[in-house]
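Suppose you are handed only these lines of text.
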Amino acid sequence: MKKMLSASLMCADLMNLEKSVRELEKAGIDYLHIDIMDGSFVPNITLGFDFINAVKNITDIPLDVHMMVNEPGRFLNAMKLGADDILCVHHESDIHLQRTLAQIKDKGIKAGLAINPQTAPENMRYLKDYIDMALVMTVSPGFAGQKIFSGAEFKTKHTRELLDEWGCENVPIEVDGNISVENGVKLNRCGADIFVLGTSSLFIKGKDMSESAAKFRAALQEG
Ligand code: DX5
Ligand code: ZN
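From them, the structure of the protein bound to zinc ion can be written out as follows.
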């Protein structure tokens, strides 16, 4: 599967977001990763739905929306997303997860299922027909600048093995949290396909984003 870079906008210069989006377009970024947090599922609040709709209006880069909110099914109509966009919800956030994933897909949006570090990928088994992307969190969600958790590589590899066993070879794995070049290369070897780039590799003061993105892609190619 094609390796994709997803830029985490919560790590961008929040005072110059449109400028950041233009730089990301220039850098050839594949997705804009937008973290939505409710202060309850995770102890933080970041970007909101009006922000998502505003970004949607200014760029053609597909959105990769990461819902770190409880009962995410309540908000499916708050975002104007389309067929190229991904709307990802957490396994741990919804007691009616199958209904929510089905509703996302019924809207013609790609449905992502995210699992926190402690959540086994086996939990996706019965929902495999409802997911277009599996998000393996490589940190406990909620904050940028954290350190990858010790089981990230093994878990990514194990998730890939399970998805392939279930006939989901075309379901990409996204990894999110402390995706430095070094961690990206290791996770690529474990089967990761979509890399969420934040403060660990892309949004680095004084560093050109196009150069950082090119460096990350080259490192993946070197394997
Ligand atoms: C964490 C967020 C990530 C994060 C990535 O909950 O989902 O997108 O911003 O940034 P770094 O690279 O700083 O971990
Ligand atoms: Zn995220």
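What can we learn from it? The longest strand covers residues 31-37. Helices lie at 17-26, 49-58, 97-106, 152-165, 181-189, 209-222.
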